[in-house]
């Protein structure tokens, strides 16, 4: 299935349009749809019995919020999620998502090392929900360590929207070159997808109205059944 990719500028304009008075979506709605799409992509890519333990690496912004929502859905899908969330914003939206995870007894950690064990070593899958398409520059602490682990680990990585630390348009950088096994593009694929060499590329954008896709000149793929994601040809 062929697909069009968009630039950072267009991706930002699409989000603004979705959350405008004419688009009608709230940030909460979009985050819920994104997190559900990510969780469904994980469910389609991995067996809960063989790979139950999912470490969700949560960033400080909306990409991290998508990860928090995904954690809740993964729990209900039969996985065992845990959160590495080193920098937790005080904004009400993120606090409520944390409460939802706590109510499911999802472990939440601010440090990678726990009682002599590294959280990555105890996981079967890593969900990269650190930075989205607005990220620019070099990865800094406290996220530099975990992105360094992404570069070296043999554990499968699932990246939310773009691999964290990549340039949204030109892909891997001098400092961040890791390749996730699964990429979940949200709303519409970004230009860096052309550098993705993993196994599965999903798009989660079943909420996009045809008028918006027409305005920004991209196609909404056909989603099978009741699925919130569709796998694209690489």
Automatic annotation (TrEMBL):
<dbReference type="GO" id="GO:0052856">
    <property type="term" value="F:NAD(P)HX epimerase activity"/>
</dbReference>
<keyword id="KW-0479">Metal-binding</keyword>
<feature type="domain" description="YjeF N-terminal">
    <location>
        <begin position="11"/>
        <end position="220"/>
    </location>
</feature>
<dbReference type="InterPro" id="IPR032976">
    <property type="entry name" value="YJEFN_prot_NAXE-like"/>
</dbReference>
<comment type="function">
    <text>Catalyzes the epimerization of the S- and R-forms of NAD(P)HX, a damaged form of NAD(P)H that is a result of enzymatic or heat-dependent hydration. This is a prerequisite for the S-specific NAD(P)H-hydrate dehydratase to allow the repair of both epimers of NAD(P)HX.</text>
</comment>
<keyword id="KW-0630">Potassium</keyword>
<dbReference type="GO" id="GO:0046872">
    <property type="term" value="F:metal ion binding"/>
</dbReference>
<dbReference type="GO" id="GO:0000166">
    <property type="term" value="F:nucleotide binding"/>
</dbReference>
<keyword id="KW-0521">NADP</keyword>
<keyword id="KW-0963">Cytoplasm</keyword>
<feature type="binding site">
    <location>
        <begin position="132"/>
        <end position="138"/>
    </location>
    <ligand>
        <name>(6S)-NADPHX</name>
    </ligand>
</feature>
<dbReference type="InterPro" id="IPR004443">
    <property type="entry name" value="YjeF_N_dom"/>
</dbReference>
<protein>
    <recommendedName>
        <fullName>NAD(P)H-hydrate epimerase</fullName>
        <ecNumber>5.1.99.6</ecNumber>
    </recommendedName>
</protein>
<keyword id="KW-0413">Isomerase</keyword>
<dbReference type="GO" id="GO:0005739">
    <property type="term" value="C:mitochondrion"/>
</dbReference>
<dbReference type="InterPro" id="IPR036652">
    <property type="entry name" value="YjeF_N_dom_sf"/>
</dbReference>
<feature type="binding site">
    <location>
        <position position="128"/>
    </location>
    <ligand>
        <name>K(+)</name>
    </ligand>
</feature>
<feature type="binding site">
    <location>
        <begin position="62"/>
        <end position="66"/>
    </location>
    <ligand>
        <name>(6S)-NADPHX</name>
    </ligand>
</feature>
<keyword id="KW-0520">NAD</keyword>
<feature type="binding site">
    <location>
        <position position="164"/>
    </location>
    <ligand>
        <name>K(+)</name>
    </ligand>
</feature>
<feature type="binding site">
    <location>
        <position position="143"/>
    </location>
    <ligand>
        <name>(6S)-NADPHX</name>
    </ligand>
</feature>
<feature type="binding site">
    <location>
        <position position="161"/>
    </location>
    <ligand>
        <name>(6S)-NADPHX</name>
    </ligand>
</feature>
<feature type="binding site">
    <location>
        <position position="63"/>
    </location>
    <ligand>
        <name>K(+)</name>
    </ligand>
</feature>
<dbReference type="Pfam" id="PF03853">
    <property type="entry name" value="YjeF_N"/>
</dbReference>
<comment type="similarity">
    <text>Belongs to the NnrE/AIBP family.</text>
</comment>
<keyword id="KW-0547">Nucleotide-binding</keyword>
<keyword id="KW-0496">Mitochondrion</keyword>
